[in-house]
Amino acid sequence: MHAVILAGGRGVRLRPYTTALPKPLVPIGEEYAILDIILQQLGMRGFERVTLAIGHLGSLIRAFVGDGSKWDLAVDYTEEKAPLSTIGPLLNIVDLLPEHFLVMNGDVLTDLDYAALLDHHVACGAPLTVATYQRKVKIDFGTLSTAEGRIVDFVEKPELFYGVSMGVYAMTRKTLTPYPRNVPFGLDELVLDLLARGEGPAAFDFAGYWLDIGRPDDYDEANREFERLRPVLLPGSASRAVLDVTS
Asked: Among 13, 41, 64, 195, which one is most buried in terms of CB atoms within 10 A?
């Protein structure tokens, strides 16, 4: 039960919040960092070991997490000297990874069962399993279809649904062995290469709560909704707080 958390990005889209803090450490609900929530969730799901892939402001993440004992986890680190994209950091530590493991972005808020994702991956035997979510995209314009210079269909401001990657994956170590180390390599490149080789990844469909804290609007939404979402994201946290107060 090993998870790799990708926490090395600069968080450019989330500025100014990430000017002084790496994105996984921005506060949620004035009480937790995003990374704190993720580590608690991994511990609840039975994970024992976590590797943090750090880069930008990585020293702050090291200072916050330490050896992981606060979460009853064994935490180690891999540090990228230059940006390596999504999969690149894994290639440099592939020999240290178990046969099957979880990979996730360090800025995801979700109640996804990480252990169930990993179990599904092992059972289906795919080289890669991607947690997927149906995302609604509202088009702010009337859309139309044409044929031979005539409009044949018109829809006013439609809402479209797309299956998107949640930024959480389960992977098998041998999937990574063909690729070179110390070069940028993204999930998109990995998926396209697997498809070209006829080794399509598996999908793990999820319909619960998911929010990628990628933009200021998403971050503001997470903070507005956190008290309502706390029992979903951190089951038992509210009751522990009551016990602490009454004691």
From this structure: 41
C-alpha–C-alpha distance, residues 243 and 236, integer Å: 11
Q: Which residues pair with 75 in a beta bridge?
A: 50
Count CB atoms within 10 A of the CB of residue 64. 16
Per DSSP (E only), the strands in the chain are: 2-7, 27-28, 32-33, 49-54, 74-79, 100-105, 108-110, 128-138, 143-147, 150-155, 159-172, 202-206, 210-212
pLDDT, greater one: 65 or 236: 65
The SS3 assignment for 231 reads helix
Query: What does the alpha-carbon distance between residue 46 and residue 123 come to, in Å, rounded to a whole number?
Result: 18
Residue 89 above 70 pLDDT?
A: yes
The pTM of this model reads 0.84
- Return the SS3 of 147: strand
The answer to whether the beta carbons of residues 194 and 130 sit under 8 Å apart is no
Out of 3.90.550.10, 3.40.1080.20, 3.40.50.300, 3.30.360.10, the CATH code matching 2-132+164-246 is: 3.90.550.10
